Amino acid sequence: MEKIIAVLFMFAVSALLALIFFTLNRLLGPRKESVVKSVPFETGRAPITLPTHRMSIKFYMIAILFVLFDVEMIFFYPWAVVFRKLGILGLIEMGIFILVLFLGLVYAWKKGALEWE
Amino acid sequence: MNTAIGTIDWIPVAPFIALSVLGFLIMIIGLFFPRIYRETLGTITLVGLAVTFFLILQNWGEPRYAFANTIVGDKFSTVFNGLFVVGAALTILLSLNSQENRYLLYADYFTVIVFATAGMVLMSAGTHLLTIFLGLETLSIALYVLAGFRRENAFSLESAFKYFLLGAFASGFLLYGIALIYGATGSADIQEVTRWIQQNSLTGSLMLPIGFLLLFVGLGFKLAIFPFHMWAPDVYQGAPTPISAFMATGSKAAAFAALLRVALSTQSYTAIAWEQVLWVIAVATMTIGNIIALRQDNIKRMLAYSSIAHAGYILIGFIANNELGHSGMLFYLLSYTFMNIGAFGVISYLSTAEHEFVTLGDVRGLAYRRPFAAIAMAVFMFSLAGIPPTAGFISKFYIFSAAVKAGYVWLVILGVINSMISLYYYLGVVVQMFMSAVEEKAPATATQQPAVALALVVSMFAVLGLGIFPSRWLAVFMEMARSFI
User: Fold this and answer.
1) What does the alpha-carbon distance between residue B289 and residue B107 come to, in Å, rounded to a whole number?
2) Cβ-Cβ contacts under 8 Å, A110 against chain B
3) What is the mean pLDDT of residues B291-295?
4) Minimal Cα–Cα distance from B32 to chain A, Å?
5) Has residue B428 got a pLDDT over 70?
6) Which of A32, B235, B309, B369 is most buried by a 10 A CB count?
7) A2-110 belongs to which CATH class?
8) How far apart (Å, rounded) are the C-alpha atoms in residues B72 and B51?
9) pLDDT at B102
10) Whole-number percent of chain B with pLDDT over 70
């Protein structure tokens, strides 16, 4: 309980500090509005296009495949921790798991999901 | 934690492994031989399902647990898994209509059906709530894909999308229910939960009843019972016809399997006014399904509402909560699988890619154009309505007599009234087929669909066989029901 209070206290202090800085800035700093200032910041250049343009749907396929193999990677970590305990059975189980994902990759590859065109 | 391969009991998991391997096999075959005949692929799938069926039968007997008590092979799972595999096999036969499904990606389609069946098998064999959830998700994700398989058809896409959104939402309820049960009892293993309930009590904390309630909501969505039935008509209408049949029978039976296992093991529904709640739900489900079905012009939609009503009838057996009630549910689910797949099968039998044969206008005078299809449809309609000597009559008879034995006389009276209402729309189809003249511009029907015809013949035999000689099957189901107590 004490730890939680300490964390909450830290949150409160940092929020308060931010509030103080912004208020001081507002009160003491000079303010001059201009059109250029209110333009969104884009690496220092003038905005070239609207930010709402279309994205290629190809990215979605890549993203799905990425998620698939990312989950595979995450699964490896707990396995590595208990690797010795599980022994040879764990190795075989992991092999089956990778095989299933590999079949998925073969499927995606063969169906042309990795082709950019 | 030191488990060696030799110590694992493979028999309970064998059906699941067989289905997984089969699914990947079909996928790979389809990938490397894209020009393979659909009949060849269908035959491979059917052979694989036959092997699975054999493996399932090995589980009949005393419970055998595997994988740290998360999967069991017992009489209960044997009966249900057998039902799922038979349903999947019939669905595959229905899908082999070469004129309706000309553009189907057959290998992918069969793969997903097999994976859906694997999910069902996991649901009925799971003795851990998370195993059941895993099975449910495998089944659901496969069904979302299958519902949208006619990609060029807007209704099919709508069907998949609606099913996906609502299904994902319902899965959330189920998972939350599991979390609450785990929180209250410290385990999600059904046996552990049961032990906890026996030592403490079900109503001691509010968490556990709410957990069970949410679990029921999650499964109730799959069962399409009131008030979670809204999705069914749109989804069944838009999905490919064999898939509608598969969803209405297999997926419903799988949800009932999970519900029955949880309820029978924990005896959780004898406490806290469950019966009154279920009573109201059963009556509302039957009545809403039947009343709305009266006004349907589209046969697939009508069958969707009728499937809602049938879930209500089956729920009566659940409420009766005695041996006859539980075995009656099994009997009903088995009969329903055949008669419903049959009824959807007739639609599939006659449909072409250009014209789906689904409205009452389409079947006008069908008896004079396609007598075999009309007779088959009539048998299935009689069975769905519950007219002897069909399986539908016997199923209702068992369920209703179980409810009378348990003292729910009013529930049975309302059930019988509902059956009478349903006569109107089932017989309406028969009247259209046999007593109206053929129209001038009757739409063209598909010709020569031997695989679908085979499925229809099998279903007809089963519907009549179960209706005329029910006692042998009932004895099997009674043994299953008894094995739980």
Assistant:
1) 35
2) 31-32
3) 89
4) 8
5) yes
6) B235
7) mainly alpha
8) 19
9) 61
10) 93
